[in-house]
Amino acid sequence: MSGERTLLQFQPDACTVSRGGETIRLLPKEFALFQFLYEHAGRPFSRAELLDRVWGLEDPTDRTVDDHIYRLRKKLRGWRDAVTIDTVRGVGYRLTRKGARLANPLVSFPEFSQNVYRLLELYHGMGMGAALQTLSAHRDVLGIELDPFYAVYIRFVRGDFAWFVETSSLPFEEKLFYLLHIFSMVQKNPRESLRLFERVRSEPDRLPPRWRDELEINVIGLYLETGQWDKAERQMAKAEGIVARLGSDSFTLLLRYTQILYALLRDRLTEAEQLIRRSEEQLSRIPMQRELGSLTLLKGMYMYRRAEQQQARQLVEEGMEVLRASRFVPHVIYGVRLVLFFLDTFGWDAEWQHKYSTLWEELAAEYRFDYLARSIPALVQRPF
Known about the structure:
Distance between the termini: 48 Å
Order of helices and strands: EEEHEHHEEHHHHHHHHHHHHHHHH
Largest sheet: 3 strands, antiparallel
CATH architecture of the largest domain: Alpha Horseshoe
CATH superfamily of the largest domain: Tetratricopeptide repeat domain
Helix content: 55-70%
């Protein structure tokens, strides 16, 4: 059996799975269940976990999982040499991948690996989460070996947050920054997030050096959410030096966006407008999709402050569409959080406030916010 015959290719739009020229069409939930199990091969899941991860806000029964597994096994029986869905007694189900992969002949060419890494860096820098995920999903077919950093980072981009809590394959100091990020997204009380951030900042050796600068920039947003203006101002001044040293467009915009939010919250609309224009000029030179979505949201906040509700709504919707298209799940969640924080603070638009509260609940169910908010503090606060 050749290695090529063991590779499965998923086509979400068509709900089909292909292998060696053969294609199987699945029903939407069959496809979602199979893809989830395939991406988490080797790990057993209970029926309750599968209902939570695949069916989300729907209200099926345990029997629903059993029925879908039964149908999947029938449709996949011709591929049992490559993949099986096994019953784990007392637990639930586990997918097992079989067969050996062919060695990738391209890895012996250093320039190939260098070009792949540059491509990943470009997608990352341009905020093209869809491209990152597509490349990762088809890496076997393309003969690509992911750099270890991107193998982990892509999990974060696509919203596989529970993996960071549960995995033992990643050293704790390497996943700590991700855990802080995830907690600050899913925890609605920013004071709880700030407490964890400050705990880690007081012990900088807990983080690898590459994450420390970003932590110093990200903490500004928590100072703003908790109304600690003096600390936010001091931290923004500190962050300006960090950003100047890094020379990164994305970090420059990250800091500027916190400055825009600060200006909006402090009723400095002229200052906010100037910062928005500077950001637009930068993005006209380097059109980073993810950053464009975030800026468009902030422009919507600016229009709310100017009491131009219709234009504000239009910009908020446009910004969210750009973030969804980027397929950076963390930025989608941060975007919804920003809209809710702003509308909760000023209370200008009850209809949009309800709309985004509903969206938040949908995201909370899909990405298991309650589980993450319970689990992460215990991990972060354990002795170093």
